[in-house]
Design goal:
The protein is mainly beta. The protein contains 1 helix and 9 strands, in the order E-E-E-E-E-E-E-E-E-H. Bound molecules: zinc ion (ZN).
């Protein structure tokens, strides 16, 4: 359990390695299991949906639509985006019906490499703005650390 008891840990033992200006939080880990932070349904779980595709990068991504949006500063967190994954529990193309149903803590896959570094990127998207094309629809990396319950970079997740 994270310090925020409403969310499950996305990566047990991962080291928080965020940097200012990221569109989410980087969690350093070497090919470790990745979990759903909350219940929802998959928008997709497939190769792609990332710009980091060169060299050792493992370009698999998952987007989870939350069953219950999370209140955030007058907005609602509606989706969670995971990328740089090396393996996926489910193979589901965007637009597929029926959608895969996910419970809190369900395995989503295995972390991998992005921009040459072993880590998971996790992003939280507001108000259904899933294209991540503007800053008002995304939690910044420090926002994600606050959401998780007040972690500092360098700390490990439970
Ligand atoms: Zn990142």
């Amino acid at each position: 359990m994270l310090r925020n008891p409403a969310l499950r840990s996305p990566l047990h033992g991962g080291t928080l390695a965020g940097y200012r200006g990221d569109t989410g939080l980087d969690i350093a880990a070497d090919r470790k299991p990745v979990f759903a932070v909350a219940p929802g349904t998959l928008d997709y779980s497939e190769r792609g949906h990332t710009l980091w595709t060169s060299g050792k990068d493992t370009p698999n991504s998952v987007r989870l639509a939350l069953d219950t949006p999370i209140a955030w500063k007058g907005h609602k967190i509606t989706h969670v985006y995971y990328t740089h994954m090396s393996a996926l529990t489910h193979q589901m193309h965007e637009g597929t019906e029926p959608r895969v149903v996910i419970k809190a803590g369900d395995a989503l896959g295995v972390s991998g490499v992005g921009n040459g570094m072993p880590h998971l990127h996790i992003g939280f998207l507001l108000d259904g703005k899933v294209e991540q094309d503007s800053w008002d629809g995304i939690l910044t990396e420090s926002d994600v650390r606050v959401l998780f319950g007040g972690y500092r970079n360098g700390e490990k997740l439970p």
